[in-house]
C-alpha cells in the first residue's frame, strides 16, 4: 500500500502556476509611477511604534513598498538612500542591481528565482550607497523593499549625471545608462 501511495505521489504533477500579467499586477496592487522609474506602493509603515529621531526629524522605524520595473519603465535610476533597504524578489523576470560604494567599488546583484544561476531572493543595500536597478528583459519584475529607518523622500537623493561622473569616472557607462 505504501508503494502504491508513493508511486501515486510521484506520478502526480503540480498544476502550472498562472502568473499575472503586468496590467493585473499594477491594478491589483494599486501601484503608481515612482520618481526613480518603475511603479510602487507603500504597503506598511510602523505607525504602531514610537518614531526614531535621526537628527533631521522623526522617522518610522520601518516602511515597506512594492516596487515594479516593467518593459516600458525598465530602469530604477541612480539614487542614494539614507536608510538601509532590504529588497525581496517576488514575481516576473530577474531585476539587476548596481551599487556604487563611497570608495568607488561597484557591486552587482540579480534578484530572481534562478538560485542555481547565482540569482538572489533577497538583497540588502546599506544607506549611503548609490543604487540603480534595471529590467534587461521580460515584461516585469516585482520586488518588495523594507526600509529602516522608514523611507522619507527627504532622505533620498536622485543621481545627477555630472556629479556622479565626477565622483565615479571609472563607472561612466553605468552612470550614463541609468541617469536621465
UniProtKB/TrEMBL annotation:
PANTHER family listed in its UniProt record: DUF985 DOMAIN-CONTAINING PROTEIN, RMLC-LIKE JELLY ROLL FOLD PROTEIN
Matching entries from InterPro entries are given as: Cupin_DUF985, RmlC-like_jellyroll, RmlC_Cupin_sf, YML079W-like
Q: Which Gene3D superfamilies match?
A: Jelly Rolls (2.60.120.10)
Residue stretches making up the DUF985 domain: 24-158
Protein name according to UniProt: Cupin domain-containing protein
Pfam families found in the cross-reference section = Cupin_5
Amino acid at each position: 500500500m505504501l508503494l502504491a501511495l508513493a508511486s501515486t505521489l510521484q506520478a502526480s504533477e503540480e498544476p502550472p502556476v498562472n502568473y499575472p500579467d503586468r496590467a493585473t499586477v499594477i491594478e491589483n496592487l494599486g501601484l503608481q509611477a515612482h520618481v526613480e522609474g518603475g511603479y510602487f506602493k507603500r504597503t506598511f509603515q510602523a505607525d504602531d511604534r514610537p518614531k526614531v529621531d535621526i537628527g533631521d526629524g522623526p522617522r518610522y522605524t520601518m516602511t515597506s513598498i512594492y516596487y515594479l520595473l516593467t518593459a516600458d519603465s525598465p530602469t530604477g535610476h541612480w539614487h542614494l538612500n539614507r536608510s538601509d533597504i532590504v529588497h525581496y524578489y517576488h514575481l516576473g523576470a530577474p531585476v539587476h542591481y548596481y551599487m556604487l560604494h563611497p570608495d568607488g567599488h561597484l557591486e552587482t546583484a540579480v534578484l530572481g528565482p534562478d538560485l542555481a544561476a547565482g540569482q538572489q531572493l533577497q538583497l540588502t543595500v546599506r544607506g549611503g550607497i548609490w543604487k540603480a536597478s534595471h529590467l534587461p528583459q521580460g515584461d516585469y519584475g516585482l520586488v518588495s523593499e523594507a526600509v529602516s529607518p522608514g523611507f522619507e523622500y527627504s532622505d533620498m537623493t536622485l543621481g545627477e549625471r555630472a556629479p556622479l561622473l565626477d565622483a565615479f569616472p571609472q563607472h561612466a557607462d553605468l552612470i550614463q545608462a541609468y541617469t536621465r
